[in-house]
Amino acid sequence: MLKVTVLLENRKAKQADGLICRPGLSLLIEDDITRILFDTGPDNSFIHNAEKMGVSLEHIDWVVLSHGHYDHCGGLMHLHKLPKVLCHPGVYDHKYAGVKIVNRFIEIKKISTQPPSVKHKFYFTKKPYEIGDRFIWSGEIASAKSYGYVKGERVEPDALKDEGVLIYKSGKGLVIFTGCGHKGLKNIIEHCKRLTEVSTIYAIIGGMHLRHAMPWSLMSLRSYIKAVNPEQMFTCHCTGKWGKLWMPDAEEINTGDVIELL
Hints:
It is a single chain. The protein has helices at 45-53, 70-73, 185-196, 215-228, 240-245, and strands at residues 2-8, 26-30, 35-38, 62-64, 84-87, 94-101, 104-110, 122-124, 129-131, 135-137, 149-151, 155-157, 166-170, 173-178, 201-207, 232-236, 251-252, 258-261. The chain is of the alpha/beta class and 262 residues long. It has one domain (2-261): Metallo-beta-lactamase, Chain A, CATH 3.60.15. The strands form three sheets. It has a seven-stranded mixed β-sheet with strand order 8-5-4-3-2-1-18. The chain has a seven-stranded mixed β-sheet with strand order 9-10-13-14-15-16-17, covered by helices on one side. Strands 7-6-11-12 form a four-stranded antiparallel β-sheet, with no helix packed on it. It is globular.
């Protein structure tokens, strides 16, 4: 049994009195052996929601950060007992939304946050990493896509090398957890299939970055998803109502929801 508790998402479930919503994502994912906190949202809202839901955040084996945007890792500093943290070293990059005109960068908003300085708790990796027998961190996913800019010695388009996904190898196929899916859903799925040498996708869960996608891109993606034929799809966060419309048989999950996969 794989249990997924939506501690934070952009919207609330219908029966979610007292819970807080924020643009962002935080999922507690657990089977009978391992407990993983996948992303932490932008602040301490996921902790408030866990308390209201009667969900313990004690004895978490790993925190896995999908990427370095504030709405996915800003809440990390609010965990009183920091578990082991698995992520790409790029989560420490300074990321910005903005416009680059010729050699001038016009900054609009900082979209990263400063993670805790207790780096001995962090396991940084650019490569895939196995968490127990069933969970795998994808490592870097090759893609030509970029989103925003990174400020270092110079300002460059952010290729989001730090963005990865969490994979669970179930008896029915792969369960893929996406934070934002900036890398493109098709690209992510194909990466997971190559990495695990498993071609069956049982479920896809998370943000899919489709709320502003063009219809022709969504038509192509819809055809691909139909061909992959996952048994279950759960969309949230940056998928948006618009993106979900194009996903065959997808369900929307919100803050306070709990789903169980056999």
